[in-house]
Amino acid sequence: MRATENLSRLGGVRMNKYLVVDAERCTGCESCVFACSFRHEGKFSLKARVHVHKLKSEGMFIPVMCQNCDSAPCVRVCPEGALVQEGKKGIVSFIPDNCTGCRECEKACPYGAIGFNEGTNLIEKCDLCGGDPECVKVCILPRAIRFAETRDKEDKKNYLKTVRDAIKHDRQIAEGVQ
Description:
By secondary structure, this protein is α+β, with helices and mostly antiparallel strands. It has one domain (3-174): Alpha-Beta Plaits (2-Layer Sandwich), CATH 3.30.70.20. Helix content is 31%, strand content 17%. A hairpin with a 6-residue loop joins strand 4 and strand 5. The chain is globular, with a radius of gyration of 16 Å.
């Protein structure tokens, strides 16, 4: 299946709209997680395509979901073409029929935004809810997650650095280094 066929099947999510995250506004309520899980799993749980990374020592919460990276590493490493990106800055779409469950994309994602479903043996990533993201709908008071036509390069760069630093911080704690 080609990328354009997959995009049509997904309702034509061919827009240049992005999830924009402002981690400083996140309260850690996890409403975005519950809305996502209900949309995709039909029940409220912490198993979702978005998760909130908690830096308790910093008192900071960071919503993490696929950022549709420019020249996405997950797309480059997928041996079966289960992840496709329209152009270098397009939305990364998932084609379940092509996925073998090898999890190479999960390892390649620098932000931990790709999960794996043991029950289906398939990866899971944000699909922007077909162009109407549930996480945005429930994040009305803090507006930590927005769906915008453009994303400021500096804001995205700062957000991604915050996520990378949080992951590094967690690894250091796990290894007993601080």
